[in-house]
């Protein structure tokens, strides 16, 4: 009898496993985007997405897992549909909305979203499942029909006059801007070229206007990738953004050019013409290279004398007489503190130099992630008596990563949370395991970051105006953090509102066993 029961149990387990594999394959085969969120974790992070959702959003799975679904709306946060979704989640109800979302490359797409709660046998809402369909084409058709109806109501004379004024306005802009501009027809022949283009490339209007773009000069613009991008502009309205061309141009020598191309829009309608902007960034790139070289050389040159000075200060502290005055002791202590600050700054500059040259070294070994976070928090807490750092959640796993670099990231996020929220009392750290990633969130109760500054917060040397006025620094800490996390195949991002604090999150792939 026991043998029969064991056989039935094994058969049942095999059936369950086959059902699960079939369900997984079915979800990945679906043309609808499917996500699953964890309602038991703060902020309902995404724990599963199928291939269709990756294709629809343009993000990789590693860039999706751990985020709340609202990241797809970017700065477009005033949609009433967001409130409907929030209410449905808080009430544990299903809902259907059509909402504006944005792909990774910034393109808008309309999303028909169905969300529904997943309820356990105990009646607890453990997850939400979202099924998403791209209805952009339908929306576009509706908008085109409405636009066509509006256009038919206008008088032909007014439309002609407005078109002429718009063309004159565009022509005046093209001629006055200090950037080379070309207008191309659908066959990529030059319709017009501004004076800056003529002067920069030392050509005449006669040999430029009417000539195919790919035949200009010595065929310097005949680049397969550029052809492909330009071909997509007219039918899809996808612009070419920041496309670099390095070439030995006739009469002006070797230059690095940055190309941006857009479909021309007049009176709300797209004409079959392309505006191509060409910027010479040769000198700008050379200045950046020189700046990086200077930072690298200066950092290395300063490191040796500072190490020597630090050694002398430490020697003075060891041989200090017992009857030394309090003032002398304080001066020596402050000297040591400022030397440590300067050493840390130089270390950061060296990190920036290594990142820019691609020489950052990672030594990935498994370590107890929760223990690392706890010890890092304890070290920061011991040096900060004005803030209480609270840890919630656990991952219960080991992570294969460069532990010293991850500690550097966490140290920076915690230090910033304390530094930029001097009046606050608490800093919150939450750890969780989200799918095959570990996630850490550091939340402060500080001044918050504007949406505009959030776009640049991880750029090298960027500092927001308000922060720059109140707090010292060079603006390289978060840049280093993002590069470290990116080199670990994780993601680092911020969620913030002015006056309501900030939450910095990062995920790391687990890639190891317990």
Task: Tell me what you see in this structure.
The longest helix is centred in the middle third of the chain and has 37 residues, at 282-318. Helices cover 45% and strands 25% of the residues. It has a 5-stranded antiparallel sheet, sandwiched between helices. Strands 7-6-10-9-8 form a 5-stranded antiparallel sheet. It has a 5-stranded mixed sheet with strand order 12-14-15-17-16. The protein folds into 4 domains: 31-140, PAS domain (Beta-Lactamase, 2-Layer Sandwich), CATH 3.30.450.20; 155-280, Beta-Lactamase, CATH 3.30.450; 285-357, Helix Hairpins, CATH 1.10.287; 365-509, Histidine kinase-like ATPase, C-terminal domain (Heat Shock Protein 90, 2-Layer Sandwich). α11 packs across α12 and α12 (403-419) runs antiparallel to α15. The chain is of the alpha+beta class. The protein has 15 helices and 17 strands. Its main location: membrane. It is a multi-pass membrane protein. Its EC number is 2.7.13.3. Pfam families: HATPase_c (PF02518), HisKA (PF00512), PAS_9 (PF13426).
Low-pLDDT parts are: none
Largest beta-sheet details:
5 strands, antiparallel
Gross CATH architecture of the largest domain: 2-Layer Sandwich
**Count of helical regions:** 15
Average pLDDT score: 83
CATH superfamily of the largest domain: Histidine kinase-like ATPase, C-terminal domain
Please tell me how large the radius of gyration is. Answer: 29 Å
Structural class: alpha+beta
The share of residues in extended strands comes to 15-25%
CATH fold category name of the largest domain: Heat Shock Protein 90
The number of distinct structural domains comes to: 4
CATH C-level class of the largest domain is Alpha Beta
- Please give the order of strands in the largest beta sheet: 2-1-5-4-3
Share of helix, binned: 40-55%
What's the overall geometry? globular
Q: Terminal Cα separation, in Å?
A: 37 Å
Number of strands: 17
